[in-house]
Amino acid sequence: MEENSMKRIRWMSILALSAVILVLGSGDVLGQKRRPVLKKKVTAKKVVPAVRLYAVTTGTLIRSRMDRTISSKTARVGDTFTVTVTEPVYSAGGVVVVPIGSTLLGRIDLVKPAANKGRPGEIDARFVQLRLPNGTKRAINGSLTELTGGTSVDNEGTASGNKMKNRKVIFIGGGGAGGAVLGAAIGGGKGALIGGILGAGGGYLGERLTKGPEAEVKSGTEFGVYLNQAISLPRFVEAPDGYL
What we know:
The chain is mainly beta. The longest helix is centred in the N-terminal third of the chain and has 33 residues, at 2-34. Helix content is 14%, strand content 37%.
């Protein structure tokens, strides 16, 4: 009898201990469920103010200077070269968007070396990119043109008279020292010379019995780049030191 009582007490103790463990375990689970869900902190996005752009109109003339010499004797189609802007370019509202010292990237589209019967060399080029001193770059569509003669330019650098229309301007060899002049191809054929002398001296470009002069455009030669399409740029601001 006493032994049965002891067994009963032992079983009751085991049951009581199990109940306590079960309650404590349930409490942990419940405690975990009651833990607050931490909400992800939402930070407000910084609003960047829109940069105001200014239009540089079609027909704008960019005055430029050759950075290195190119020649119809050695140049190849696809070769690139750079020219440096010598006068600031203004937007239609008078804001400086292209300062002195900017560069234009030119690409040679056609090369004809000088040939017999006095045929002079020719170089046809277009301009595809503008790079400002602060690192800003823009794709452009620009053509070679003269600085004097057929196009008048106002104080905002805009060409008037639309005399570039239907006219393709190229470098043509000329002068006893291999200088270059600007020539125009109108309606697909070569027209009369329209530019001032760009190289060393001017010469007679008629047919000769000997080989004609190469079109050599020397470093430092100045000419114009005519914008065939308008572009938009922000007001020019110098880049902070160390950013270029």
